[in-house]
Structures are given as C-alpha cells and as structure tokens.
UniProtKB/TrEMBL annotation:
Record-linked InterPro entries: FAD/NAD-bd_sf, Flavin_mOase-like, FMO-like
Keyword Transcription regulation: no
Molecular function via GO: flavin adenine dinucleotide binding; N,N-dimethylaniline monooxygenase activity; NADP binding
Protein name: Flavin-containing monooxygenase
One of the Pfam families matching this protein, by short name: FMO-like
Family according to the record: Belongs to the FMO family.
UniProt source species: Aegilops tauschii subsp. strangulata
Enzyme class: oxidoreductase
Amino acid sequence: QVVVVIGCGPSGTDISRDIAGVAKEVHLASRWSLSATSEKLPGHANMWFHSEIDRAQEDGSVVFHDGSRVKADVIMHCTGYKYNFPFLTNDATVSVDDNCVDPLYKHVFPPQVAPRLSFIGLPLKVVPFPLFELQSHWVAGVLSGRFKLPSKDEMVRDVTAFHSRLAARGWPRRYTHRLRDREFENEDWLAEQCRRGGPEGWRREMFDAAMQVMVERPENYRDEWDGGDYDHLLAQANRDFAAHCQRP
C-alpha cells in the first residue's frame, strides 16, 4: 500500500521506517519542512519526505504544499496529542486554547487555585521522566509546606511575561509547553525550588551527543553507541548509578 504519515516527530519517523519494509511507498509529511520539500530519504528506496499537506481529495490523492501529490491507500496521523480535561468544570480556572493550557505558573500551577490543583507532565519535546519527577517533587513539597509559592499576583505576572516572550518570538500558542532548548533551564529552576541538584553534567552532554547521533544515524542510533570522545560520560554515569545501587 501507499502510506502517507502525517507528523515528523519520534513516532512518525519510527513508524515510517518500520512500515517501509512492507509498504509499497511511504510518504512522510512535516510542517517543519520547507514548502518546496519533496525528496527521497536516504537508506530506503521507497520513502519520501514532504512539506505539509495542502489538501486531500475525494479520490484519495494527497496534495503537498510543493504541489506534488500521491494517491494514498492509508493516511496515518502521528500528530501528537491534544490536551483535554473533561473532568474539570468550565469555571475559567484553566482553559485549553490551541493546545495551550492557560494560565499555568511554570507549566504546573494555575495561579487562581494554587496549590490545590496542579498539572504534571504537560511539557513537550523533553526527556520526560526526569522533568516530571522534579515537577512531582516540587508539587509534593508545596503541598506539604516545605516549599512556598509566590503570591497569586506574582504568579499571574510571571505567566503574562512568559506569554509575552513567546509572542515576541512569533511562536503560536500550541508551542507554549514545547520546552526543547529550554528543558535543562527549566529543570535547573525546579531543582533550585526543590533545594536539590539539577541534572548532572554528564547527562546533559550525553543528551546532546545522543541527539547528534540520532540525526547522523537515524536507522540504528538506538542500537549502537560509538561514543569515541563521549565514553567518559558512560563512566561518569556508571559511577553515579553505582552509588545508588550499593548492595547491603
């Protein structure tokens, strides 16, 4: 079959490569690519990378922004998730607009009702579990009285300033919780609130190295580690892990 995969995140790219072994053609569409993009991906004879989809037609044809088109048997959406909180009443405490949960102080606390309500795990494009563990530690500390939040007015001002900075960059609201380049900055801030150390230096360097390897060898970056100059990071990690795993 001819398959069009919409979305070029980790799921979209992994699924595309997985099904390329059995599909007739795989066409990966990304809104991050240039509008004139339509190129064959290296390593596969039947995979193409395209710009965003312009329209789908009744006969099954998919037309991309660059004008190219394919007749698809399957259109697969790998476009991420939409935030939805149907269990919260519509009382204006928080709202979801263009996948932005607002207002939230540091992506966690709604100033109006903090600390009685909090959100763990909203940020996108992050290494999830270390960040979510820090968020959980912060929330637990606030609820137990060990950590103190700013006043409601201070939190509202911080949220307003944050959205102003995003608007100045031209970021749409749907990227509000997309941290990526600000992930470690956010984790350092949370660690400071929790009176504990932030991410280790080797973890930051290993993340950067792994991201580079993923770009260079997307087919096998999970299976092979050619660390070279980065092998010392593994040694540092193993020493840290050993300190937490001492046998009695």
